[in-house]
Amino acid sequence: MTVKLGVPSKGRLMEKTFAWFDKRGISLIRTGSDREYAGAVTGVDGIDLVLLSAGEIPRELSAGRIHLGVTGTDLVQEKLPLWEQQVEELAPLGFGHADLVLAVPQCWIDVDTLDDLDAAAAAFRIAHGHRMRIATKYHRLVHGFLRDSGVADYQLVDSQGATEGTVMNETAEMIADITSTGETLRANHLKLLVDGLILRSQATLWRSRVAPVDSAEKHVLNVLIDRLG
Ligand SMILES: Nc1ncnc2c1ncn2[C@@H]1O[C@H](COP(=O)(O)OP(=O)(O)OP(=O)(O)O)[C@@H](O)[C@H]1O
Ligand SMILES: O=P(O)(O)OC[C@H]1O[C@H](OP(=O)(O)OP(=O)(O)O)[C@H](O)[C@@H]1O
């Protein structure tokens, strides 16, 4: 059998992942047409390349369908409640840096900290008869962070993209999303809470703790991990 390596199938993470492996003498290549999600690995024998959405790689690792996978810390910690038992971090890759943060409208001049938010959320509920809405795709991480911070008067609304636009579109009062340069937040008139950093994330190579390995696969994994070290 072969070792299965899952990597993002498109965009910035895919290109940088290919370059990271290339520097270590392992070529990941896409085969077939531009739109065909097929690939191959050269430089080490016995590895199959599996091109996947970055968001699906945590699930594939935890199901043991891939042995190794590249995706962000944020996606692993959001999607796998018991992530430390299911995956092992082999190497941070030094790109895909993004911070998961809480952000509120710039015009909320009295709200800069979590304490301010707590007070504003309570006042919002009294004034509007419903809880303040926070748009995000990171439900588990945001709930955990706000629980630990003692903020309770809120509800999460799901947003799988263009999250910063939800405030202007009036489907949420504030957001929790990843930011890198901060440009998207600024363009949408949002500001960070000063103590609202939930998680620092970067692209990382993970190994599944649950994928079954026979002796041949174990050998290939050891050779590969040695080369990447
Ligand atoms: N602006 C950014 N700068 C750096 N890293 C980012 C940025 N946006 C997203 N990322 C990181 O890239 C990874 C993939 O992000 P995202 O959830 O946007 O997936 P995607 O590329 O939309 O994939 P898919 O929709 O196929 O699941 C995440 O780990 C995220 O932290
Ligand atoms: O701080 P910045 O450098 O502006 O980057 C942050 C933006 O990048 C990501 O969006 P992406 O481009 O992946 O689009 P999405 O809204 O579909 O997730 C993220 O969700 C932010 O919106």
From TrEMBL:
Keywords: Amino-acid biosynthesis, Glycosyltransferase, Histidine biosynthesis, Transferase
Keyword Glycosyltransferase (UniProt): yes
Family annotation (SUPFAM superfamilies): Periplasmic binding protein-like II
Gene3D superfamilies (UniProt xref): Periplasmic binding protein-like II (3.40.190.10)
Chemical reaction(s) catalysed: 1-(5-phospho-beta-D-ribosyl)-ATP + diphosphate = 5-phospho-alpha-D-ribose 1-diphosphate + ATP
Pathway: Amino-acid biosynthesis; L-histidine biosynthesis; L-histidine from 5-phospho-alpha-D-ribose 1-diphosphate: step 1/9
GO molecular function list: ATP phosphoribosyltransferase activity
Keyword rRNA-binding: no
Enzyme Commission code(s) on record: 2.4.2.17
Residue ranges of every copy of the ATP phosphoribosyltransferase catalytic domain listed in the record: 54-227
Database matches in Pfam families: HisG
Source superkingdom: Bacteria
Function description: Catalyzes the condensation of ATP and 5-phosphoribose 1-diphosphate to form N'-(5'-phosphoribosyl)-ATP (PR-ATP). Has a crucial role in the pathway because the rate of histidine biosynthesis seems to be controlled primarily by regulation of HisG enzymatic activity.
Protein name, as recorded: ATP phosphoribosyltransferase
